[in-house]
Amino acid sequence: MIVPIGNWVLSTACAQIKDWSAHAATRDLRLAVNVSARQFRQPGFVAEVEQILVETGADPSRLKIELTESLVIDNVADSIARMQALKALGIGFSMDDFGTGFSSLSYLKRLPLDQLKIDRSFVDDLATDPHDAAIVQTIITMGHTMGLHVIAEGVETEAQLERLDQYGCAAYQGFLFGKAVPLAEFELLLAEFWARFIQADCST
């Protein structure tokens, strides 16, 4: 069921992007979707994504596809061709769980990536394990050098956030900021944030 479920997720995500485009508080949001290896390797995957974009009217620059490192290196030439075709549509790419596979700079420099996502296994003990700290620093430095956005996942403590900030990581996700919530609750939280932001801006 992974392929039809994956297509449904993509379609739902694009429909949401289109809906968000009509509202000031959400129109600049980007939505990231994890794509499985089986779905990504389907012969008609690129055409399917293009059709979904046309049917929903979603801005492709608001969509980001997350691929795991192991998926990409399974067939690098095919991965690059598919990613370039989707990139031509305006879609962005993030490499999920970076550092947990068999990283190779020779293929990394050829991939049309926009973002590296630092795996939470390196973030968990970041504040206490010098080896994890060295790996995280290396990934951040390498990402920035290659012009890639870097995001750390699994951030749960202030100590982790402080270290990541010191190392130059500017984006994070994790329970320190919030847990996964239903769409309606997320939009309510976002509206409350914007209301406080506007109020603070007006007061200055």
SS class: alpha/beta
CATH homologous superfamily caption of the largest domain: EAL domain
For the sheet with most strands, the description reads: 6 strands, parallel
Instruction: Tell me the total number of β-strands.
Output: 6
Rounded mean pLDDT is 91
The rough form would be described as: globular
Strand content: 5-15%
The CATH topology assignment of the largest domain is: TIM Barrel
Question: pLDDT under 50 segments (min length 5)?
Answer: none
Short description:
Helices cover 52% and strands 13% of the residues. The mean pLDDT is 91.
Question: What does this entry look like structurally?
Answer:
This protein has 204 residues and is an alpha/beta fold. The protein folds into two domains: 2-175, EAL domain (TIM Barrel), CATH 3.20.20.450; 176-204. 52% of the residues lie in helices and 13% in strands. The protein has helices at residues 2-20, 37-40, 45-56, 69-74, 76-87, 105-108, 120-123, 130-145, 158-166, 183-203, and strands spanning 31-34, 63-68, 92-98, 115-118, 149-152, 171-172. Strands 1-2-3-4-5-6 form a six-stranded parallel β-sheet. Helix 6 links the parallel strand 3 and strand 4 (115-118). The termini are far apart. 27% of the residues are buried.
